[in-house]
Specification:
By secondary structure, the protein is an alpha/beta fold. The protein has three domains: about 10-165, 3-Layer(aba) Sandwich (Rossmann fold); about 170-200; about 205-340, Zinc Finger, Delta Prime, domain 3 (Up-down Bundle), CATH 1.20.272. It contains 16 helices and five strands. The chain has helices at about 10-20, 40-50, 65-70, 90-100, 125-135, 155, 170-180, 185-195, 200-205, 210-225, 230-240, 245-265, 275-285, 290-305, 310-325, 330-340, and strands spanning about 30-35, 75-80, 110-115, 140-145, 160-165. It has a five-stranded parallel β-sheet with strand order 2-3-4-1-5, with helices on one face. α4 links the parallel β2 and β3 (about 110-115). The longest helix has 23 residues, at about 245-265. The chain is globular and about 65 Å long. It starts with 10 loop residues before the first helix and ends with a helix. About 40% of the residues are buried. The structure holds zinc ion (ZN). The site of zinc ion has 9 residues, from α3.
Length: about 350
């Protein structure tokens, strides 16, 4: 986690954090929320480094404290350990955090507990933490990162400051990727798929698995366009047993369905998904209610995977629903309407 490299975009959020710090009024609980890849954890690490580094332009990236932070070896900063298949936090872990709160910091005057990626943090562990978040010792700060603010209970959320992290512009994203040594062509390719999400663009450029997931998504979209259920089933099977990869696939698929819905009305509207061409073709074929049904089917599959439902089962239900939605959705909804009457 780099504590001092340039952070692109999100100027007003960073300004808010800087002001809180300058006034000595840093919130003791902060949730940074936004899609995966937007830099929430990097921002949390930089916030911590800014408060702990004693250099004039903190974080300096060079001092003993910054070096400890960079290696995640600072004794007063705990990136709370995940556990379980879904990546939540165990009751024992949260209890150990609560027990640790009373011990003053050993290096500086602040102690940090980072609950990163807390999307699967269950209500029970949140309730265990509630009292600590309500009345933490003066030196304790809690940082949470999640894709959606709704993952935290209203009781927890009401005690902390929630800040949204947004994608950067495509130009900023190209610059950030170029700075890391990628060719203009590679940057353009990645930005065409993941737009202003620097983390996702990097994963696309650096990880075979991410590139394959994008390819599978495009194949699935193509098979919906061609009404080819067999290929779509094969595509879903190619995702294997990797739940998080399947969820990434569903997110990408859903974005292209949303793009298709938008492009039905505005053919040249900018895309948020990975397949602009597929979105345009899909827009020509789908009725609005068909697109809506497909979107709902993807959401159902996503919720099923998040709830640990059997993966092949959830995906084959999705394939059938997509084929259905792509063909006679408007006709069927008319019939259904008649039955209800
Ligand atoms: Zn430093």
């Amino acid at each position: 986690m780099s504590t001092h490299t340039k952070f692109y975009g999100n100027e007003s959020l960073r300004q808010n954090l800087r002001q809180m710090q300058a006034r000595g009024r840093m919130a003791h609980g902060i949730l940074l929320h936004g899609a995966a890849g937007l830099g929430k954890k990097t921002l949390a690490a930089q916030l911590i480094a800014g408060m702990l580094c004693q250099a004039e332009h903190a974080p300096c990236g060079n001092c003993r404290i910054c070096r400890m932070l960079e290696k995640q070896q600072h004794p007063d900063v705990r990136w709370v350990e995940h556990s379980g298949k879904l990546g939540g936090f165990s009751v024992e872990t949260v209890r150990s955090v609560c027990a640790d709160l009373a011990i003053p910091p050993s290096e500086g005057d602040a102690k940090f507990y980072v609950f990163a990626d807390c999307d699967a943090m269950d209500p029970r562990t949140q309730n265990l933490l509630l009292k600590a978040v309500e009345e933490p010792p003066d030196y304790v700060y809690f940082l949470f990162t999640a894709e959606s603010p709704a993952v935290l209970l209203p009781t927890v959320r009401s005690r902390i400051v929630s800040e949204a992290v947004f994608p950067v512009t495509e130009a900023e994203c190209r610059e950030a990727l170029g700075e890391r040594g990628f060719s203009p062509e590679a940057c353009e390719d990645a930005v065409g798929v993941f737009h202003g999400n620097i983390g996702r663009c990097l994963a696309y450029l650096e990880e075979d698995a991410m590139r394959e997931t994008v390819t599978l998504t495009k194949t699935a979209i193509n098979s919906i366009i061609k009404k080819d259920e067999y290929t779509m089933l094969q595509t879903a099977a190619a995702l294997g047993k990797d739940r998080s990869r399947a969820m990434q696939f569903l997110l990408l698929l859903d974005r292209t369905i949303r793009d298709a819905m938008v492009r039905k009305h505005q053919p040249n509207a900018p895309c948020i998904g990975c397949d602009a061409e597929g979105a345009s073709l899909l827009a020509r074929q789908l009725s609005s209610s068909g697109a809506q049904n497909m979107h709902l089917a993807v959401n159902r599959a996503y919720a099923a995977l998040a709830a640990n439902v059997n993966l092949p089962l959830a995906l084959s239900a999705l394939c059938a629903a997509c084929m259905d939605a792509g063909t006679a959705s408007s006709l069927r909804s008319q019939k259904k309407g008649r039955k209800l009457l």
